[in-house]
Amino acid sequence: DGGITQSPKYLFRKEGQNVTLSCEQNxxxxxxxxxxxxxxxxxxxxxxxQIVNDFQKGDIAEGYSVSREKxxxxxxxxxxxxxxxxxxxxxxxxxxxRATNEKLFFGSGTQLSVx
Amino acid sequence: DQQVKQNSPSLSVQxxxxxxxxxxxTNSMFDYFLWYKKYPAEGPTFLISISSIKDKNEDGRFTVFxxxxxxxxxxxxxxxxxxxxxxxFCAANGNTPLVFGKGTRLSVIA
Lengths: 115, 110
What we know:
Shape of chain B: globular
Mean pLDDT of chain B: 95
Strand content of chain B: over 45%
Order of helices and strands of chain B: EEEEEEEEEEE
Order of helices and strands of chain A: EEEEEEEEEEE
Number of strands of chain B: 11
Structural class of chain B: mainly beta
Helix content of chain A: under 10%
Largest sheet of chain B: 6 strands, mixed
Oligomer: heterodimer
Largest sheet of chain A: 7 strands, mixed
Number of helices of chain B: 0
Number of strands of chain A: 11
Radius of gyration of chain A: 13 Å
Distance between the termini of chain A: 35 Å
Low-confidence stretches of chain A: none
Low-confidence stretches of chain B: none
Mean pLDDT of chain A: 92
């Protein structure tokens, strides 16, 4: 089955701790994205990557870091600098990152909570 | 500054009636628009899209209308079914990553 796999489904972070959210896709898509959903806030872009070994900051990148060493994988690290990390995190991919008629495919999300 | 706005946080509709969800945008560079449906604790799923060269796109019970001069689009669901109850996100694309609205929670009452 082709798709996007996010893990874990639920994650708890202690204060001062860095945590990493996993995102893997087997759709052979070039572009991958991380969005954050807060209640009543919609989806806000954290980081995106249009090609391996390259990524760009989104609207709310502070306190987060990413890497794109493989086409299939785009892990997101929530660092201790992110003061309000509790949210639902969504990973997505698209065939290309530069076309205007791009449709995003989403994973099932990771709920991160602070202990 | 919100580039994609969904001004109605929630909408309730009776089963069998029409649901109309609205979306406004401010960036004239947007040329492709999408609607996503989202259930709690799940990722959004693509519903329907429209290119700026069209003013209407239909797929079964779902129709999206685009009014470029007004920078407004709407999603019509006819007839509405209880399984349509979800949060609907409007999104826009203009050679940048998708920009999403805040969503409208649709409740279809049996």
